Amino acid sequence: MKLITRNTDYAVRALCFLAKQDGRIVPVSGLVKELRAPRPFLRKILQILNRKGLLKSCKGQGGGFRLALAPDKIFLGDLIKILQGPIQFNDCFFKKMFCADLRICLLRKKINEIEKYVISQLESISIASLG
Fold first, then answer.
1. Strand-pair category, 64-67 with 55-58
2. Domains in the chain: ranges and CATH
3. 31, 42 in Cβ contact below 8 A?
4. Arithmetic mean of pLDDT, 111-117
5. What sign does the dihedral 38-40-41-42 (CA atoms) show?
6. Phi then psi for 67, rounded to 5 degrees?
7. Half-sphere exposure of 78 toward its Cβ, with a 13 Å CA cutoff?
8. pTM of the full predicted structure?
9. Is the pLDDT of residue 78 over 80?
10. Which of 103, 115, 108, 104 is nearest to 92 (CA)?
11. CA-CA distance, 108 to 102, in Å (whole number)?
12. What is the separation, in whole angstroms, between the first and last Cα of the chain?
């Protein structure tokens, strides 16, 4: 299980870089150079973040991307949900080999507690705190 995928990693790095630009528009080529990321791959991520309202795209000459929200309003937990889907650890590890009833499974209860803690931590990490 991978908690943070390559997509989310590049998104965090791009957002942290943009946060340091004080609202200036950064062309995709500048982000590609700074992050050393493949252009089509990074462009796809930036477009997703633009559609979700985290970035603002500016088209034409001098175009690029800038943050649409303040860095302290963008959280790692939200990025993971946007790019990876729901954060979930609570699938049964044993595929019902040991548990007759998942509702009373003690391991599942412990995993749910860990999941809630991890999610709360991820949701408290802002781009501002990473920059």
1. antiparallel
2. 6-130 (1.10.10.10)
3. yes
4. 89
5. positive
6. -65, 140
7. 16
8. 0.86
9. yes
10. 108
11. 7
12. 27
Structure tokens at 128: 């501002």
C-alpha 36/C-alpha 46 separation (Å) is: 15
Residues contacting 50, CB < 8 A, separation 6+ = 56, 57, 65, 68
User: What is the spatial distance between Cα 109 and Cα 89, in angstroms, rounded to a whole number?
Assistant: 11
Q: How many other CB atoms are there within 10 angstroms of residue 41's CB atom?
A: 13
Tokens in use for 61?
Answer: 């000459």
Give every CB contact of residue 9 below 8 A, 6+ residues apart in sequence: none
DSSP category for residue 41: H
Number of residues assigned to the chain: 131
Q: How many C-beta atoms lie closer than 10 Å to residue 79's C-beta?
A: 25
Tokens of 96: 């019902």
pLDDT tens digits for range 17-45: 999 999 999 999 999 999 999 999 999 99
Q: What is the DSSP string of 60-109?
A: STT-EEEESS-GGG-BHHHHHHHHH------S-SSTTSS-S-GGG-HHHH
**Count of CA atoms in the C-beta half-sphere (13 A) of 81:** 10
Residue 26 to residue 43: CA distance in whole angstroms: 12
CB-side neighbour CA atoms (13 Å) of 89: 17
